[in-house]
Specification:
The structure holds 2 protein chains of 2 kinds. Chain A has strands at 4-7, 10-13, 19-25, 32-38, 44-51, 57-58, 67-73, 76-81, 90-98, 102-105, 109-113. Chain A is mostly beta strands. The radius of gyration of chain A is 13 Å and the shape is globular. Chain A starts with a strand and ends with a strand. The relative contact order of chain A is 0.34. In chain B, 0% of the residues lie in helices and 54% in strands. Chain B contains no helices and 11 strands. Chain B has strands at 4-7, 10-14, 19-25, 32-37, 44-49, 55-58, 61-65, 71-76, 85-93, 101-104, 108-113. In chain B, the strands form 2 sheets. In chain B, strands 2, 4, 5, 9, 10 and 11 form a 6-stranded mixed sheet that branches. The chains are: A mainly beta, B mainly beta. Chains A and B meet through strand 5, strand 9 and strand 10 of A and strand 5 and strand 10 of B.
């Protein structure tokens, strides 16, 4: 089956610093990658949709300058949380799609900003 | 925009009891997907329903898709402690990309008392 690798699994950073999260599809080429954020005991909220080689499409209310998404290849997308603040602490999850496997989720990154 | 409502938010059952979660979309869906997220984990795909009135079974789990393709349910017979987790339904919204972005329901948190 399809595997999506997401790193790091957890990260603690100081307020004001930037954090990069990687999402890789290991055995398939992802047509599209999605980035979600999930607060404790809440649902997954879509942040942005990215296609390889093009700019990401951000959901309403998501700051594109704060959450930088780069989709350099069909197997790699990155999310950079810039100038992180405590309110950015959350569980970030990526999802990669292709025609064979549908939607496959990464294992998530738990970000804590102190 | 599309909204996906899911009830109940929480369900506590005794081991061996049945459990049902319901999902309702504000718009007709091309398909509906169900995911399970264990505590501390990431969403894991359970099933996709495509046809109107479709019913699918996976061991003790029964999934239904409504005739109007706007609602769905997941029923677990004789719950076990391994069923603990949050169950999400999700429906895609297509905006010109090959794969639509998924809108998730709020999720139902299931706890099972042994």
């Amino acid at each position: 089956g399809a595997v999506v690798s997401q790193h790091p699994s957890w990260v603690i950073c100081k307020s004001g610093t930037s954090v990069k999260i990687e999402c890789r599809s290991l055995d398939f080429q992802a047509t599209t990658m999605f980035w979600y954020r999930q607060f404790p005991k809440q649902s997954l909220m879509l942040m942005a949709t990215s296609n390889e080689g093009s700019k990401a499409t951000y959901e309403q209310g998501v700051e594109k300058d704060k959450f930088l998404i780069n989709h350099a290849s069909l197997t790699l997308s990155t999310l950079t949380v810039t100038s992180a603040h405590p309110e950015d602490s959350s569980f970030y999850i990526c999802s990669a799609t292709d025609r064979t496997y549908g939607y496959t989720f990464g294992s998530g990154t738990r970000l804590t900003v102190v | 925009g599309q909204q996906v409502m899911q009830i109940p938010q929480y369900q506590h059952v005794q081991e061996g009891e049945d459990f049902t979660t319901y999902c309702n979309s504000s718009t007709t869906l091309s398909n509906i997907q169900w995911y399970k997220q264990r505590p501390g984990g990431h969403p894991v795909f359970l099933i996709q329903l495509v046809k109107s009135g479709e019913v699918k079974k996976q061991k003790r789990l029964t999934f239904q898709f409504g005739e109007a393709k706007k609602n769905s349910s997941l029923h677990i017979t004789a719950t076990q402690t391994t069923d603990v987790g949050t169950y999400f339904c999700a429906g895609p919204t297509f905006g010109g990309t090959s794969y639509g972005k998924l809108t998730f329901g709020q999720g139902t948190i299931l706890t099972v008392h042994p």
